Structure formats: C-alpha cells, structure tokens
C-alpha cells in the first residue's frame, strides 16, 4: 500500500465528498475563487522578485 499515491477510485471518493459538502451549485464558484487566489499569489510572488532584485545595490543615503 502506497500512502502518497492517489488513484482514480480515491479521487472519485474525494469528489463525491466535496459535492456532498458544498453542493453542486457552489462548485463553479469555489473553483473560480480558488483559481483567482492562485493567480493572485503567483502574481504577488513574481512582483516581489521584480521589486527587490538581489539587494546588491542598496540605495544611497540622501543628504
């Protein structure tokens, strides 16, 4: 028995449980919200890298 692998029967059981808990009408909204959250997260991570490139050149003190 492999603990880390999910086959088709396991995925179907998880899908049935999700449908029972959330209902079939709310699943598209749930998927859309999850997708937007992932998109926002990826965007914030990539923007963070662009804002602070290596910090090897610290800003000079203003006098």
Q: Strand content of the residues, in percent?
A: under 5%
Q: What Rg, in angstroms, do the CA atoms define?
A: 22 Å
Termini separation comes to 68 Å
The tally of strands reads 0
Reported for the largest beta sheet, the result is: none
The helicity comes to 55-70%
State the low-pLDDT regions, or none: none
Instruction: Note the run of SSEs as H and E.
Output: HH
What shape does the CA trace take?
elongated
Give the count of helical stretches: 2
**Main structural class:** mainly alpha
Query: Please, what is the average pLDDT?
Result: 80
Summarize the structure.
The protein has two helices and no strands. The chain has helices spanning 8-22, 27-51.
Describe the structure.
The protein is mostly helical. Helix content is 63%, strand content 0%. It has 2 helices and no strands. It has helices spanning 8-22, 27-51. It starts with 7 loop residues before the first helix and ends in a 12-residue tail after the last helix. The model has no long low-confidence stretch (mean pLDDT 80).
Helix/strand layout:
Layout: H1 8-22, H2 27-51
Key phrases:
single chain, 63 residues, 2 helices, elongated
């Amino acid at each position: 028995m492999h603990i880390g692998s999910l086959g088709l029967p396991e995925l179907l059981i998880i899908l049935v449980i999700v449908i029972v808990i959330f209902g079939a009408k709310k699943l598209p909204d749930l998927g859309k919200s999850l997708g937007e959250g992932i998109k926002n997260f990826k965007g914030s991570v990539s923007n963070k890298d662009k804002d602070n490139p290596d910090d090897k050149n610290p800003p000079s003190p203003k006098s």
